[in-house]
Amino acid sequence: MYTFNFFIFNSIGKILLALSISYFILVIPSCIISPDEPIDGNGNWISIGLEGKLITNIKTTKNYIYACAAFDGLFRHPISSLNNDWEYIGLEHHTLINGISIDTLKGVSSPNTVGMSDVIINPNNENEMIAVIITLGPNVPGIYKTVDGGENWIEADSGYGFIPYWWPDDSGRFNPWKSAQVLFNPTHQFDVIFAGDVWNDGIYRSTNSGLTWEAVIKPNLNTFSQTNSFSQDPYDPTIIYAGGSGSAGDAPTWRPAWFIKSTNGVEGIWETLLPDGTEYVYFDSVVDDICFTTNPQAIYLGMRTFILGSRDDGKTWTKLFTDSDHPANIFSIEASPNNERHLAAGNGQILIESTDAGKTWAKVKTPANGRVGGLRWDKQTDNLYVISGDSSGIYVLPEASSIRLTNTE
Questions:
Q1: Rounded CA separation 221/81 (Å)
Q2: CB distance 58 to 264 below 8 Å
């Protein structure tokens, strides 16, 4: 499961806006490390470029790393390379969509847009992609599609979104914060995509590769207020998970986190796993990330200021980590593809590591001593990628499963 996070900081380092997007590709690990094998190797972070750009998200495929770079658009980089050889593939802020520039559509000088936030790629044809540009303004499309590797992009959000109860009836289409959390079917059915965003209650689905959308969980302001994460069970492809934060209410259930699963694949018969009545899921909480490991019973959730873990497939939960010194959302939590004990997580301020399946955690020196904007532990290469949260680029730690992150430079 891959998750990406986007942060806007003010001048004193406080997070003003933070978004989290999750995405999963099923890959069978090629080498499972013995539980008794020590995790004590040394390693070095390697910069692979995009310095000076605000990276909001990255995705990995068989051939490339894709980077969403806010107003600078979309880039890709050969996954086999450790050099700074990025290729621009579109959606910079002045890109033309149907002859109209994104500058004009979104008002780049205004606070109503924050640029590229997410992309999904057809694993069988990497020229076909669907991308999201976050917008906070009315009557502005936020989802785009290309079938020619980024040479041309078209709007692809027909039917997506709804008009909130508090918006004027004559506002037309309203797609605020179009930060769709997208997931295409790990069985490589690229025509089926699930999506949700920061303001749209409910979950949406496309069955034609993003051209049209329909609500599979209809808007309900008393249930959902935002969808932050999606994933798919790597051991049972019929189970799809989603998580986020509930709408406002009375204490102690104000903005409860929610975590649900579909037990019938794309048909969307959903079961609620959280809230379950425990203290961890109530009062201003959120499920920002969903992480699976090589243990089919283990699930980890990145929450607001802490991590939840389950060792029985979500039946019971344990609070695993909290940090009062850096009380920010755990936007990104990743597991080694080869060792269920080895985990890494970040909350925008710090990078942490566990080598005992989440029982204990240690803070890690971040690349370039900067903020953490996101993590991706690639299942194919075993490379751990870190997005700098202060625009100093992307870093990679090759073959990270056997490397103790606290030993890195």
A1: 46
A2: no
**DSSP assignment of 307-346, as one string?**
EEEESSTTSS-EEEEE-TTS--B--EEEE-SS-TT-EEEE
Exposed, middle or buried: residue 324 (CB in 10 Å: 0-12, 13-18, 19+)?
Answer: exposed
Pairing relationship of beta strands 318-322 and 306-310 according to DSSP bridges = antiparallel
Residue 8 above 50 pLDDT? no
- List, for residues 137-156, the tens digit of each pLDDT value: 555 567 788 999 999 988 88
* Element holding 26 (H helix, E strand): none
- The count of domains in the chain is 1
Provide the 3-class DSSP secondary structure of residue 368: helix
Q: State how far Cα 1 lies from the chain centre.
A: 9
Contact between 103 and 97 under an 8 Å Cβ cutoff? The reply is no
Any bridge partners for residue 384, and if so which? 377, 397
Structure tokens at 379: 């299942």
Distance CA 191, CA 184 (A): 8
Ramachandran area for residue 284 (φ above 0: left; ψ -120 to 50: alpha; else beta): left
d(CA 275, CA 197): 20
CA dist 41 and 152 (Å) reads 45
Residue 295, classified by CB atoms within 10 Å of its CB into exposed (0-12), middle (13-18) or buried (19+), is: middle
Selection from 130, 166, 65 nearest residue 377 by Cα: 65
**DSSP assignments along 386-407, one per residue:** EEETTSS-EEEESSGGGEEEEE
Residue ranges making up the domain that contains 48: 2-31+40-408
Tokens of 19: 């978004």
Contacts for 210 with CB less than 8 Å, ≥ 6 apart = 130, 143, 145, 156, 193
Residue 245 has a pLDDT of 80
Residue 330, SS3 per DSSP? coil
Rounded-to-integer distance, Cα 101 and Cα 33, Å: 50
Token readout for 81 is 């390379």
Alpha-carbon Rg for the chain in angstroms? 20
| pLDDT greater than 50 at residue 229 | yes
Query: Does position 223 have pLDDT exceeding 80, yes or no?
Result: no
92-121 residue pLDDT tens: 876 655 555 555 554 444 444 567 878 889
307: domain CATH number is 2.130.10.10
